[in-house]
Structure formats: structure tokens, C-alpha cells
Design goal:
The complex is a heterodimer of chains A (78) and B (329).
Chain A: H1 3-15, H2 37-51, H3 57-62, H4 66-77
Helix pairs in contact in A: 1-2
Chain B: H1 28-39, H2 44-52, H3 55-73, H4 77-102, H5 110-118, H6 121-137, H7 139-152, E1 161-165, H8 171-179, E2 184-189, H9 192-204, E3 211-215, E4 229-234, H10 244-254, E5 255-267, H11 281-290, E6 293-301, E7 315-323
Helix pairs in contact in B: 1-4, 3-6, 3-9, 4-6, 6-7
Classes of the chains: A mainly alpha (78), B alpha/beta (329).
């Protein structure tokens, strides 16, 4: 597991209040019942805070799975 | 009295005939739900909540709106509008989350909003079609729609002259015309994209001959004929203005004595182009009363879910008002 994915997993566990959550690159909203549109922005703000990055709304809406979120974080971090 | 437009029968499309088994053969609402489930699964819960309030009525309204959408935009209009809806909903949710964090709306002036959003024609197209779908896909907006139909449309004569201020996608006024076979509507909007889309929706609904849209700033009293309308529709404009009080005065100005208006506004509900922050329902009521309008009925509706630990409850409020004949009523 990459360091970014590991850190993202901690954010997911925190936001969804589930210590057993183990997200992978292909994990999407279809795999986590609580991952609806509101939890998505809550998650995004937590990711922004954790990685000190800022996303645009278009980027946020386009995200399909954890892998895309991971790539976006790494791109923002340069 | 208003009538009920049919939602059954054969569907005309702007494209070529579809092959058997193609997506075009499915009921439009099924197509929309299947597409959202597959392409925007995070949005599905909200759709189910909206439908769950009154499935039969939801289906009637949704099918009508979707038929007009397909007529106006072609068969791919469902998927394109669903994409726009998902983007718009994300914009709203993200703006609300930042509002929760910052305690204030991001924009303070109309000039700022115009520069960042309204001047972008392509973005405006998606924005307007996204909002078109929120009319029934957001649970609390579906409640506002039923209020509009039950409490406003039914009070107007079938031959009413209507004015719609800032029609946006046109869906509100067109829906009224579809129920009132002798009514006519004039719509004023400052956005050319709005005029184009509202015209296309009116034509799709078969009421184009009774709806006229003009690029005009309704806030300029010189451009609005006094006491010319039996009914006025002004949906979700007040929160986009720096000085909404003036708008209520415009509405009173254009209504005939005892004329009715349907006004909606957003409270503690951030959006990329919301400027005026209403916090309490009484603020909208007071602005109506200050403008010479009597508040007959109101509905304040809110989404079924909010952000975790939210300080603000985003609400949409509808007001049914009547122009006062004197100081009291």
C-alpha cells in the first residue's frame, strides 16, 4: 500500500467512523453505503486538511474511486 | 381552473427512430435512475428520498419534465442533464461545507458572481439544466413544486396573465402554462442562455405560443409594466441579489390589485452564486410586507440529510403572496 493510500485510508476511517474500513484504489461509492453526496464533500474537506491541498468542485464531482482521489492528491502535492 | 397535462401516450423525439431495446425505449424516469446509479452513485440516495415522499406524484411530474428535456435536447439530454445535476449538487454541497467552516457565503457582490459564473456561457448551460432537475430530484424542492401546484396554480384563473422574473430554465412557468390552457406568460431574464433554454422548454411542452421570453433586467422598474400581471413567478432569485428588498417592490409593482405571486428563496444555503444570506423565514416575510404584499401561505422545506455536525440547516422557502389594496390587506 502506498503512503498516500495508507493516509487516505485513515481519513476514510475517521470520516466514516469505521476503524475496520480498508479502502483500495478501486473502492468506490458502490462499495460503501454511507458514501453519498454529502459524505463525499465531508471526505473531501478532510482530505484537503490532511494533505494541505485544495480541490475544485469540478475535480470533486469527477472522482470515481479512491484511486482517482489518490492520483489527484499526489498531483496537487507535485 | 387548471387542468392536468397528460404524461402518457407516444413520445415524440427530435432524433431518428430508436432501435428496439435501445435506451430510448425505456421509461425516461427509469433511464435517469439507472444512469445515476451507474455513473453518479453518490447522488442516488437523494433521488430515492425525493421519490419516496410520494412515488406516484413524483413519477407524474418527473416524466413530464423529462419528456420536455428530451424534446428540447434530444435523446442524450437525460444523461447530459444528469451529469449537470451531479456537478451542480457537488457545487452546492461543497459550497455548503465551506460555508459551515467559514460562517459566511463566499461571494459578496453580484459583479463577483457575474465574472466568475454567469459570463461563462458553456458553464451556464450545464448550470441551468442541472437546476432544472433539482426541481424534483431534491426532496425539499419536490415539496416546493407540489406547493406551487396545489396552492398557487389553483388560485389563478385559467386565462391568467403571468410574469416570470428570472425564469432560468423556464420549468416553473412552463409547468403552470401546461396546466392553464388559456394563460399566457412573459419571462424576463438577463441571461441569453436562460432565454434560449426557457424557449426550448416551452416549445417542447407545446406552450411556446403562449410564452414570450425577453432579455431584460426586471429590477429596472422602467422596463416592467405596472399592474400588468394576474400572477408572478419568481423562483430562487432573491438570494442571488445584493439588495433583494427591491425585487419584492418590483413584484408588487407589476401585479394587478389582488394579483398573486409565488416567490421562493434559499436560507442558510450556500451556492457558488448566492450572495444574500437569509437566516430566518421571517426575513422574507418582512420583505414581502414592506413591499406591499400580503403573505397568504408559506412553506419552509429542508433536505432530509445535512452535513455531519452542521450549524446551518439549508432551507428553501416558498411564499404565496397577494398584492395589498391598502395598508393592511
Amino acid at each position: 500500500m502506498s503512503q498516500t493510500l495508507e493516509q487516505l485510508n485513515e481519513v476514510f476511517q475517521d470520516v466514516f467512523e469505521d476503524d475496520d474500513l480498508d479502502v483500495q484504489a478501486q473502492t468506490s461509492a458502490k462499495d460503501i453505503d454511507e458514501w453519498d453526496s454529502l459524505m463525499h464533500v465531508n471526505l473531501i474537506l478532510a482530505v484537503e486538511s490532511r494533505f494541505d491541498v485544495r480541490f475544485t468542485s469540478t475535480e470533486v464531482a469527477a472522482l470515481k474511486d479512491v484511486g482517482e482521489l489518490m492520483s489527484l492528491v499526489e498531483k496537487k502535492q507535485g | 381552473m387548471p387542468t392536468t397535462p397528460t404524461t402518457t401516450g407516444s413520445r415524440q423525439t427530435t432524433g431518428s427512430p430508436s432501435a428496439p431495446g435501445s435506451p430510448a425505449d425505456k421509461p425516461l424516469l427509469d433511464r435517469l435512475f439507472e444512469y445515476v446509479k451507474e455513473s453518479h452513485p453518490r447522488s442516488l440516495r437523494g433521488l430515492l428520498e425525493a421519490r419516496g415522499q410520494d412515488p406516484a406524484r413524483f413519477a407524474r411530474i418527473a416524466e413530464l419534465y423529462l419528456q420536455w428535456l428530451v424534446q428540447a435536447r434530444g435523446e442524450s439530454g437525460i444523461e447530459a442533464a444528469a451529469d449537470a445535476f451531479a456537478q451542480f449538487s457537488t457545487d452546492v454541497n461543497l459550497a455548503q461545507a465551506r460555508y459551515e467552516r467559514d460562517g459566511a457565503y463566499a461571494n459578496k457582490s453580484f459583479a463577483e458572481v457575474y465574472e466568475d459564473h454567469y459570463s461563462d456561457a458553456e458553464a451556464m448551460d450545464g448550470y441551468l439544466w442541472g437546476i432544472y432537475l433539482t426541481n424534483f430530484l431534491w426532496a425539499h424542492h419536490f415539496q416546493i413544486m407540489t406547493f406551487f401546484q396545489d396552492r398557487f396554480m389553483t388560485r389563478l384563473g385559467g386565462d391568467a396573465k403571468l410574469v416570470e422574473i428570472a425564469p432560468g430554465h423556464g420549468g416553473w412557468g412552463v409547468w403552470a402554462l401546461a396546466h392553464m390552457p388559456e394563460a399566457a406568460l412573459e419571462g424576463y431574464d438577463i441571461s441569453p442562455q436562460s432565454i434560449q433554454i426557457a424557449n426550448s422548454v416551452a416549445a417542447a411542452a407545446g406552450v411556446g405560443g403562449r410564452a414570450t421570453y425577453a432579455e431584460k433586467d426586471a429590477l429596472d422598474l422602467k422596463q416592467v409594466e405596472a399592474e400588468s400581471a394576474d400572477g408572478c413567478i419568481c423562483s430562487f432569485l432573491v438570494e442571488h441579489l445584493e439588495d433583494p428588498q427591491h425585487l419584492y417592490k418590483v413584484i408588487a409593482h407589476l401585479l394587478k390589485p389582488k394579483g398573486m405571486a409565488f416567490i421562493t428563496g434559499a436560507l442558510t444555503a450556500a451556492q457558488v452564486d448566492h450572495i444574500y444570506e437569509y437566516r430566518y423565514e421571517s426575513e422574507l416575510v418582512t420583505m414581502c410586507e414592506n413591499a406591499g404584499l400580503r403573505v397568504l401561505e408559506t412553506l419552509s422545506a429542508n433536505p432530509m440529510r445535512t452535513l455531519p455536525k452542521a450549524k446551518f440547516m439549508p432551507r428553501s422557502m416558498a411564499l404565496l403572496v397577494q398584492k395589498r389594496g391598502n395598508e393592511i390587506y
